[in-house]
Design brief:
- The chain has about 160 residues and is mainly α.
- The protein has a single domain, classed as Ferritin.
- Helices cover about 85% and strands about 0% of the residues.
- α2 packs antiparallel against α5 and α4 runs antiparallel to α5.
- The N and C termini lie far apart (about 50 Å).
């Protein structure tokens, strides 16, 4: 049985562990999504975000190291597991290339929106508790997630969705 959480700090640490698990799962999923993408723009976006995701996981490791909280490992993000599973289902379908790309974008944007919500919450908690360095690192990731989402929207609206019609 898990230990009862009694403070926002404990909840914050748990949230960071959940995010670390989410990023770790995404590091494994993004190469598969890139391989399944037909559009070179989409493939490049997935590959670029893979590099960002690795840095985002490193930021969480840095937070744990600087605060002396041990390891961010040890928790499984079941939300990310489900979102990745949805992406796998799309990749297993028999679809025209542009339709597949539209489905991959939809799956990726679900991931981005989950991460935006989760990082926004973690950053707000860090600010509330006066963890300014943590808040700055989390803000960097939040901005990257927002930009990744915007890039996916741009790719979808500029050509993928049109081609999928």
């Amino acid at each position: 049985m898990a230990k009862k959480m009694t403070s926002l700090d404990e909840l914050y640490v748990d949230q960071l562990k959940d995010l670390y698990s989410a990023e770790s799962q995404l590091i494994k999923a993004l190469p598969k999504m890139a391989k399944a993408a037909g559009s070179s723009d989409l493939r490049n976006a997935f590959e670029e975000h893979l590099n960002q995701t690795k840095h985002q996981a490193e930021r969480i490791e840095r937070i744990f190291s600087e605060r002396g909280n041990g390891s961010p490992k040890g928790k499984k993000c079941v939300a990310m597991e489900g979102l990745i599973e949805e992406g796998k289902e799309i990749m297993q379908e028999d679809m025209e290339e542009a339709v597949m790309d539209a489905g991959l974008i939809a799956a990726a944007q679900k991931v981005e929106h989950y991460e935006i919500a989760s990082y926004g919450t973690a950053r707000a908690w860090a600010q509330q508790m006066g963890y300014d360095r943590d808040a700055d690192l989390l803000q960097q990731t939040l901005e990257e997630e927002s930009m990744a989402n915007e890039k996916l929207t741009q790719i979808a609206e500029s050509h993928v969705n049109v081609q999928a019609r």
